[in-house]
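The authors assume throughout that readers already know how a fold can be written as discrete tokens. What matters is that the chain and its backbone geometry are given together, residue for residue. A single example would do more here than another paragraph of explanation. For illustration, here is how one protein appears when written out as sequence plus structure tokens.
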Amino acid sequence: MKNLITDIDGLLVGNATDETLKSGTTTLVCREAMVASYAVLGGAPGTRDTDLLNPDQTVERIDAITLSGGSAFGLDAAGGAQGWLKQQGRGFAVGPVHVPIVPAAILFDLANGGDKDWGDRSPYWDLGWQSAQRASTHFELGSHGAGAGALIAGLKGGLGSASTRTASGITIGALVAVNALGQATMGESAHFWAAPFEQDGEFGDLGLPGSMPAHVDRPFTKLDTTQEASPVNGNTTIGIIATDARLTKAAARRLAIMAHDGFARALWPSHTPMDGDLIFALSTGARDLPDDGAAFIELGALAAATMARAIARGIYCATPRANDRFPTWQQKFAAKNRT
């Protein structure tokens, strides 16, 4: 177990980052087409090909999922990933033609200090191709791929991942780009809201504070951290929850809904009108899930916990870059200053 979503056999992840742009793309590639659905609970999503993931729609399986910076421009990244997959002969068969199915979601990072003067054509199609081409079982977290330009309230966001294996051998993995309006830490302290779920010191091993930090009861958002025009406050946390348990599209949708609890346990506030919070759910179908309600309830609960851990890891692993608007967690909470 690498504590990555790629601990699930058959999943590969690739990042493509443009440091000048201060943005990037992350693509999850399925070795074989897999069952998927999604759930949006934020009020400002940006998506491509998500309607077909509803349980009543015809297409059952997808080839990849793209998460990208760039706001609506970043939706071009799915076209790049689709182009690379087409070159591999992948896709949904329509007569003699194969169409790779690549749903996508984007986050807003256009006002983060990067150079967005790209001329007539956005760079995201190329970033999508590169991220799909680079997909492997190992990938970097923090300020890479879709997390390269991410910001949260007062800190840099980032790309996070985590995995869990149940007693019965089923694996759950999360991948998330964290660019939330809200805060991932408790009040004015370094302690993550996701602390109760941390495993093996994966995001600092601080645990819960000995006493409640100052202002822990006050929602702290990007609106509190800048006096600039509202576009800098563009937000969204976009993620993928995956499992090797065999699920229908309807069950995958329910898993995505339950995994949103991980957003609420790791970010406060979450699911606001200014966030486009979205989770894709993916099933490789390699293992049978016991046919009882308790097994699925456990799966959904662990999916939420795994997502919360992935969110905290994305922020914990962020690294500094030129022209950053906010410090990283590591910069703000050096070991001697942690409380």
Summary: The mean pLDDT is 94. The chain is about 20% helix and 25% strand. The longest strand covers residues 23-40.
